[in-house]
Amino acid sequence: MKKKITILISLLFSINFLFSQSFIDTVYSVKWGSGWQTIGRDSIYFPKNIFGPPCKNATKYIPASGPEDVVELGFGGEIIIGKKNAWIVNKEGPDFIIFENVFCYGNNKIFAEPGIVSVSKDSINWIEFPFSNETLKGLAGITWTNGNENCFDYTAIGGDAFDLEDIGIDSIKYIKIKDTAIIVSLLPIDHQYYVNNAILSGFDLDAVVILHYISSNSQSMLFQIYENDGNYYLYYNIDVSISIYDFLGIEIWNNSQLPAVNYNAIFSHKYSNGSYFIVARKEDLIEIKKVILIW
Q1: Per-domain residue ranges for the chain?
Q2: Which residue ranges in the chain fall short of pLDDT 70?
Q3: Given this model, what pLDDT does residue 10 score?
Q4: In the predicted model, what is the mean pLDDT of the chain?
Q5: CA distances (Å), 239 to each of 26, 65, 146, 169, 263, in order?
Q6: C-beta of residue 29 within 8 angstroms of C-beta of residue 80
Q7: Which candidate, 236, 249, 288, 246, places its Cα nearest to that of 270?
Q8: Sheet of 174-179: strands edge to edge?
Q9: In Å, what is the CA distance from 277 to each residue of 3, 237, 281?
Q10: So what's the pLDDT on residue 16?
Q11: What is the pTM of this model?
Q12: Does the domain at residues 20-215 carry the CATH identifier 3.40.920.10?
């Protein structure tokens, strides 16, 4: 029987704003496009397959492809996504990264099915990131994923990073991705991104990483918990101290001896049924969550 994790309590002690990192967790709307593939749209996969980090098995030459990892938007399809109770904010450098299942093949050719990216504060007024019809720069879905890298390090993980500074906006709540895969079939045949339209199927969304956000309520800011392949993972900034305590108050795990990574598997089968407390600390900010495991 699959285990169940229940988060009962979240307490946040601070009056300071903390600019944190996370993933999208909400689909506000989706309009499937046309085409011959519908990968990942079934309710047993979607929208879970686009939440959390990008596929860990994705590389320059091996893209994410399973329905548990990506969802196929189809030609002209579009999706509006975001993070509940949070604002994505403009800070130094990129503010979010979009991951598609791009891959390299042949003589440095790139198979890409791009998407146009727009953002909004209110889901009514949209600002589109400018892009080039020739180089495709400014579109999502033109850079492959290095899935074994730190997903919050935009210089290593790959994907396509977007900076709100480039469009002169301070914060957003909504991200829209609209398929424009057909654009690659209109390029010169010797172009690095040229793909015959007969084998195109549309934008495949893997994940969206948020590099800068502030919470609009007291929801978790120091860490998040995500399930993948039967294990639960903690995701946190590397400067956050994390400890797990059992119901007797005995510390049973902490991240002080780990390499400088942003995640670690927790709550695998070595943990028995019962209550646990996750305590996260960063400077004068303390966050506590009570978790109940049921196997």
Answers
A1: 4-16+221-294, 20-215
A2: 1-19, 216-221, 227-231, 259-265, 267-270, 284, 295
A3: 47
A4: 86
A5: 27, 33, 23, 28, 12
A6: yes
A7: 246
A8: 26-31, 78-82, 174-179, 115-120, 126-128
A9: 17, 19, 13
A10: 35
A11: 0.73
A12: no
Structure token pair of residue 143: 């850079």
* Tokens matching residue 34: 């046309």
pLDDT of residue 220: 54
Q: Which CATH number fits domain 4-16+221-294: 3.40.50.720, 3.40.50.300, 3.40.50.1000, 2.60.40.3080?
A: 2.60.40.3080
AA identity, residue 115: G
Closest CA to 241 of 276, 280, 277, 284: 280
The answer to whether the CB of 129 falls within 8 A of the CB of 115 is no
Can you tell me the distance from the alpha carbon of 101 to that of 196, in angstroms, rounded to the nearest whole number? Answer: 17
The residue type of 184 is V
pLDDT in tens, 4-57: 555 454 444 433 334 578 999 999 999 999 998 899 999 999 999 999 999 999
> 94 near 154, Cβ under 8 Å?
yes
Residue 21: what are its φ and ψ, rounded to 5°? -120, 145
Amino acid making up residue 177: I
Locate 90 and state its tokens: 């403009």
Residue recorded with tokens 């959390």: 52
Counting every residue written for the chain, the total comes to 295
Query: What CA–CA distance (Å, rounded) separates 102 from 204?
Result: 9
Residue 142's identity, in one-letter code, is I
